[in-house]
Description:
The complex is a heterodimer of chains A (134) and B (388). Chain A has 134 residues and is mainly β.
Amino acid sequence: MFPRPLPSPNALTAPYWEAALNGELELPRCETCAAFHFYPRTTCPHCGSQNLAWHAVSGRGEVYSFTVVHRAPSKGFEALVPYVVAVVALEEGPHLMTRLIGVAPEAVRIGLKVKVEFKKQDEQTRLPVFRALA
Amino acid sequence: MNSLSEKIAIAGIGESKVGKVPEKSALQLQSDAAHAALADAGLTLADIDGLITTPVRVEAWNMPCGVVASFLGIQPAYLSTLDLAGASGCAMIHHAAMAIASGQCHTVLCVAGQNSLTHKSRASAVQTMAESGAAHAQFEVPYGPLVASNYALIAQRHMHEYGTTPEQMAEVAVTTRKHALLNPNAHMVKPITVDDVLNSPMITSPLKRLDCALVSDGAAAAIVTSAERARDLRQKPVRLLGQGYGLSHSYVGEAPRLTHSGAIESGKKAFAMAGVTHADIDVAELYDCFTITVIIELEDLGFCKKGEGGAFVQGGRIALSGQLPVTTHGGLLSACHPGLGGGLFHVLEAVRQLRGQAGARQVPNARIALAHGNGGTIAIHCTLILAK
Lengths: 134, 388
């Protein structure tokens, strides 16, 4: 069993990974202009404010784009091939990269509705993945 | 910025042997390219008082410009290490121009390249690329994207929005391969057809193996000096007319639109500075890390409307005899892709075309050329417009 790369949270990103461990998707939101953004920053990319806070989001969205990976980047991913890497557009606005589950790779389409789930990687890490909704 | 236009010239170009070169280290490849460029210009190392290089990804070099200068045995008055990923090749020329125009030095060696293929193994190079910055370490790498997956996400979205097809993308690979077969220093030497591309193994849908750039050993070098000084040197000078940068995002996951790139902005600035139009461009050396990259650059640089890049590359339009010959040395897809040095080969080819020294792949009467570099995942762009 070859290891797969896992996130190493830091002071900026720890809230995201702690929320994921508790089964919540939380994103940074600007308290000045009320827009969400992702990945986490110290400055709102929409208005420049530094008044940012973490908020739970719906975890619902749709597939903005996807690719079925047939050739793994490293040994750890070989057992998963073929797997679907996707960019999901969340209902709240931001996009994020993820992996899709619950759908055959050949059935994935742009626009597919999806909802977040959390996949345990180790004791400290649950990775947000998205399940295709029927 | 317009103060640079017409004042700066590329006076020398050189390449190392490219492809599979196990007998050379990254520094040896760079040294070979540097000496070839000096010989081309009729200069020696003693004439070089500026050096610009990039980091390599195969070894850890503290202050790469210092490592390269020391290896070559020079102590330039101006030296700098630049990293705009794939846009570095074009950006090095611009930074050299700024250093010369502001009086920091008079003759700059720009050199980049590495032994991507034989440093370890092809598989190791693919893993290193996937995990060393192209994807966000925390929010993307854990999902297992290849560098090619990031571009596949772009290709899939482009197909969805504009109806671009795998056949159209394959046309880019076939054209660059035809060009490479006319380039005596190219990594790939076998012709391919659209069917070969479509039937090559699926790597990360919709991109197949032949939609993806090579992993090569090799290095490129260019010597930049004042237009005035270049007039007295061995080769006909190639002048810098225009230049521009553009940035749209850092990572694919956070990009607001995957079909629109920073090339929109870099192209607009470069054309405005050069004072030329698209009809004036005789040859376009476009960065071709994946076939979709060329299609998006053609659109965003304004050679066709948004969404029409797929149709534009068909019917021989980007071939040597076409309306706009593109990436005439064979590019990253077929000639050579040695890491950050890859984009410098596009600049070298523009110079060769403008001098009329491109041999069997010469575009007749090429007077104005565009060279374009793309870094990250269609994220950071640098456009140069050059003239003879």
